[in-house]
Amino acid sequence: MTFDRSRNHDAILLASASAVWAQDTNTTRGITLRVCIQRALANNLEVRFERLHPPIAQWGVTLREGVFDPTLAGGLSYEQSSTRAGGEAYSWTPSVGLSGVLPHSGTEYALSARDQSAGGTASTNFLYSGDLNLSLSQPLLRDLWFDPRTANVRIAQRNVAIAGFNFSRLVMIKVTQVGDAYFELFFSIEDHTAKLEALTRARRLLEENRKRLEVGVMAPLDVTQAEAGVAEREEAVIIAERTIVDNENA
Hints:
This protein starts with a strand and ends with a helix. A four-stranded antiparallel sheet has the order 4-5-6-7, with no helix packed on it. It has a three-stranded antiparallel sheet with strand order 1-2-3. It is 51% helix and 24% strand. The model is unreliable at 1-25 (pLDDT under 50). The chain contains five helices and seven strands; from the N terminus they run βββαααββββαα. By secondary structure, it is of the alpha+beta class.
């Protein structure tokens, strides 16, 4: 794994195909923080699930507002009967009606129209009649301005706002987690580099102490302490390598 720093955080590249301590570094693949965030938001199951809540809540508003949709009804009736003179009489009666309730005020309305035409085989005259009716019902105390149906709509609208807030909050949490993991990986790579340098210095010191021991200007205890220092720094490098893998997985 290699790391290339730039002044622009969006230009930071993490090579995630191999570790920094690996011998083969020809297959590294860079990825920016922006791409990490985009992939996390696109593939995280929790985000994908939470993304469904706002549109579902919006359908709840549509459902609650449905009680205020006007109702259109129509009908057609036909009657036929025999007369005493041996003829037949018939009548056609089409009708149509529109009814509903107004939001906020709770006013109920009903508009209906009916047209009737009658005739028969014994007469060439047709009789036409019709009527148009309009009725309004306005509550004066009960449900005036506080219609429970309107309250349900307001509750559904609040649910939409809550669903949107929860989704935005989850997105911010995931973006923060991705950013933290990204820069933790950066720190672990830098820390690994520093520990490799410390190991190199410790090995150089050990080699110098052994040479001094050979010429008699260094005590064996100093060599032993240098060997312990090398072992300690080798362990630190191994831990740093493990940390890089853990952060890369995160």
